[in-house]
Write a structure and sequence with these properties.
mainly beta, Thrombin, subunit H, Jelly Rolls, 2 domains, 6-stranded antiparallel beta sheet, 4 helices, globular, CUB_dom, Ovochymase-2 isoform X1, TRYPSIN_SER, disulfide bond, Peptidase_S1_PA_chymotrypsin
Amino acid sequence: MLIFFPLNVECISLAGDFAQPVCLPLPGEIFPPKTTCIVAGWGRIKERGQMASVLHEVQLNLVDPAICEHILQTIRPGLQNLTVLCAGPERGGKDACQGDSGGPLLCPRADGQWVVVGITSWGKGCGRSWINNRMKPLTGRSSPAVFTNVPVFMKWLLRKGRIISQLSVQEGALKGSEGIIRYPVHPGQNYSNNEACSWSISVPGSKRILLEFLKFDLENHPLCQSDHLTVFAGEGLPIGRFCGSKSPAPALIHSNTTTLQFMSDFSVSGSGFSLRFRAVEDNYTLGPGCGTVALFQSPVAMQSPEYPRSYGDDTHCRWVIYVPEGYVVKLDFADFVLEESEGCQYDSLSVFRDFEAREQIVVLCGQSIPPPVLSFGRVMVVQFMTDSSVSARGFSANLSVISRKDLQNGEHEDLDEEENDDSGLLPL
């Protein structure tokens, strides 16, 4: 049995052999292709068959979004701005079917929590193969199971569900060159459980946003999936998710808008957080201790702190780079001298394919200039960390943007050569 809870409750702990909790996703949360998920329902077991008399389930793997869009356009040409996701094997044989609509698509997080990632919506046929779909007559084409993409709608769901949640702090739009956000507002209070709050910050158009954390005390979780504060830039691009009792390092966002979103679960609370936002010039840089830098420009130079002088001890620098859909990030090194160690356990430069830094592409150290590194998608995270002893000259690198189409054809052209945007900002 699956149990759904009110929108202002993210997760409920429930023990039992036959009833288990299910969680709502985070807004924009991404589950990678090939994630094995479960569909449940009382629909037909085979196409044009009888309706099921008992609840059934089937395991389906998520389909790559680009493949999903391609297949659906062979059935419904002109589909754009999809708010759906697909699941099921290309060869067919396993699928949702008529009568399953409205049921859940449940996918596991890395920590084992089950999440409602999709709602069964539609499909062409039941369990048919969709290999070489375009080569078939229109009436013979099929599709994987199609689901409403719940993470895409979570902001809307939370807004609509908030009528039953009493927030402990004023939300809304914050405009100006400087300000402070305190949550909760009054000192000495802990924030409540089952809350969802957001603040939108805008500074003058030519400025960038600096976030400085003054106090931070949230429930801790290894993956920040209990109580957490998520920072978004531009049009909902996640920059970082924070939890625990250690104040995050400053965040420099190369955009004039950002959104902060706080969510708490059903248990354990802390004294909350306070932070200062400031409008800074485009050429502003963080200090030698570093922090998080969010970039949306190309090309961009990237260097270790104090380069070409030696970087300091206990440094933690993080760059989050976003490019438009259909492009990837290329990282080229001009110089590279870091303390060398087995497994790069002391000083290191790590590159990831996701903003949460879970999916590592490569980890680097030593004194040899590495080959170029490519992202797998539109986001790349570069993380530079040092220990408390032995430093070196550091690194100097350049970020550029490559069209995925050109990359597949064996040639590439940097985006800044084909776009003529005086602002230098990529069209996100």
